Amino acid sequence: MPTDSNASQNKKPSQGKRLWNKAFKAIKSGETTFEEPLHLFSGEEHADPVIHKSGGRYVDCGGQRLLIFNFVGRQFCSEDLSSVDNTGNARLWLSEECLAYYIVKQATSQAFYTKFVNKRILELGSGKTGLAGLCAASYTGTSVHITDGNAKAVENVQRIIAENGLKNVQSYLLDWSKPPNTVSKFDVIIASDCVYFERYHCIIDCIDQMLTDMGTVYMAAPYRKGSLEKFLLKIDRKNWEYVLIENPVWNATIQAMQTEARENGVMSDFDDDLHLPKLVILRRVIRQCTLQIEECLKPTNRMPKRESTRVKQRTQRVLIRPQKAIVDKRISPLLC
Ligand SMILES: C[S@@+](CC[C@H](N)C(=O)[O-])C[C@H]1O[C@@H](n2cnc3c(N)ncnc32)[C@H](O)[C@@H]1O
Fold first, then answer.
1. Is the pLDDT of residue 34 over 50?
2. Which InterPro entries match (predicted)?
3. Which atom of ligand 1 is nearest to the CA of 91?
């Protein structure tokens, strides 16, 4: 009979762990051509062998052609690997591609103008490409800030921005636990695969600080072992309202790709719970207020002086009565 320790030795690592080990080994060795299993965007590989070796490829997102790559000519030292979270350097996660896809698919619609055009856009936890932020930038032409807490990821995004000549985008370090108060607030915040670990949940405080009152947040993340629900349960429903879209625009495309792979006899280790992102749209609860002048008492000459002053003050006091939250009316037009 196997002992407990034998049993744990024989236990196969989970699928997520295997993927993570593979990606981590790849960035450690500087070999960044490791397979990123599913691509929502087609595009030719880069002709330059150095860029090609670093996973460089073009992303054809509906006419816009963006070049993305991984750490061309850069090596990771042990400090890089042990410091800030490296999950965004390990690979371009499907959630990021899905959020980019969401933006691109809407780019010609009226809804797109309402949601993204002329808005200040912030991407949090962009990872090494910030693909969703790049797509937003190339379609809106408005100011987009792509940020991450990991210096290597930011460095790579900065090089991608320069390579694509995108003038309206900037990338810098932004740690969710220390959001800057020197940057103006944003109308739109996007984030993908940024709620998996409990230590990531401080992202909601960062959003609170960086989002304008009427702003909107778009997040993509898979359920992944209940982690998305755990995050949503943490959100204070008095101040935030959200909708969880289980069947977002990218679902059909991913399903078609899986069917095609199966028909071609390609074994897929795609697991909906671990990999298939959902879309969360989040906004502040805004309460309509009515102003009411409190009873207007007029001071009279017969009142003692002290009383007359008190009455004057009361005359000027206003009552602000919060009314029914109107957030539902604000979120529903965004669901298309
Ligand atoms: C799973 S990765 C997702 C990366 C990218 N959005 C994607 O989907 O490919 C999570 C990202 O969050 C970033 N991150 C984690 N904790 C952070 C923090 N406290 N502040 C800022 N970024 C953080 C990591 O550096 C990483 O790039």
1. no
2. CaM-Lys-N-MeTrfase, Methyltransf_16, SAM-dependent_MTases_sf
3. 9
- 10 Å Cβ neighbour count for 20? 16
68 CB under 6 A from ligand 1? no
Contacts of 331 (CB under 8 A, 6+ apart): 241, 242, 243, 281, 283
Range with lowest mean pLDDT among 73-87, 259-273, 313-327: 313-327
The alpha carbon dihedral of 114, 100, 233, 194 has a sign of negative
Distance 194 CA to ligand 1 centre (A): 6
Which amino acid is present at 239? Answer: N
Q: Which two tokens stand for residue 213?
A: 């009152």
The answer, yes or no, to whether any atom of ligand 1 lies below 6 A from the CB of 70, is: no
CA distances from 221 to 13, 68, 131, 218, 302 (A): 22, 22, 15, 10, 69
Sign of CA dihedral 88, 107, 117, 231: negative
- Nearest-CA residue for ligand 1 atom 26 is 88
Task: Look at the block and give the residue holding tokens 């992202």.
Answer: 203
Note the pLDDT tens digit of each residue in 254-264.
Answer: 988 888 888 88
Q: Which has the closest alpha carbon to 137: 159, 108, 181, 107? A: 107
